[in-house]
Design a protein that fits this description.
Elements: H1 7-18, E1 24-26, E2 47-53, E3 62-68, E4 71-80, H2 84-100, E5 117-128, E6 134-143, E7 148-159, H3 166-188
Parallel strand pairs: 1-4, 2-5
Antiparallel strand pairs: 3-4, 5-6, 6-7
Helix pairs in contact: 2-3
Length: 189
């Protein structure tokens, strides 16, 4: 009978060699307050961020990279630190609050939130190409308490990449959200 001690170290070495590297987690961040330029004070003109809808293919923890006109690749090791739609809503609200001079912009319009206007956002595309250049295409509309205000708007924002690494892509995506917040704030003003 073979002693149990010999196969255990060999088995542990084999398992260690087959293990995958630990995942890396990234988050979107709002633009630093010093860089955001307030457009107007929103006193008495409260704004809330309503639903932010993402395409189904982006509703996953892996970062998406566009590798062809009709092809996306998802990096197994490069993951979002939380749900992407939640991060987009939070960062958009913080960036918008800085531009509106509002202090805070609530994340949801619903019970307990009495905003004069709500901004609903449908993200049509939010990914990076192999060079790290990020494209954010979004349709958005400002809603009053009882009816839409104005017509729907559409924005396409392209942020240059600083290489194809995941940290650079997350930073460029954050910058794209800041640019979208600036466009929304200009429309609200």
């Amino acid at each position: 009978m073979i002693p149990l001690r010999r196969p255990v170290p060999a088995l542990l070495l084999l398992l260690a060699a087959c293990s995958s590297p630990p995942g890396r987690f990234y988050e979107l961040t709002p633009e630093p307050a010093a860089q955001a330029r307030p457009l107007y004070a929103a006193a008495g003109n409260s704004v809330a961020i309503g639903a932010v809808n993402l395409p189904g293919e982006l509703d996953r923890p892996q970062m998406a990279r566009r590798i062809g006109p009709n092809q996306l690749a998802f990096a197994e090791d490069d993951r979002w630190a939380g749900p992407l739609d939640d991060m987009v809503r939070r960062v958009l609200a913080e960036d918008l609050a800085e531009r509106l001079g509002a202090g805070t912009v609530p994340l949801a319009a619903g019970p307990g939130i009495a905003a004069e206007r709500t901004v609903a956002v449908d993200v049509l595309r939010f990914d990076a190409d192999p060079d790290g250049r990020v494209t954010l295409a979004a349709r958005w509309q400002t809603l009053g308490r009882t009816a839409p205000l104005g017509r729907p708007r559409q924005s396409t924002i392209v942020e240059p990449g600083s290489g194809g690494d995941a940290a650079g892509i997350a930073a460029a995506m954050s910058q794209a959200l800041a640019a979208l917040a600036a466009q929304i704030a200009a429309d609200l003003g």
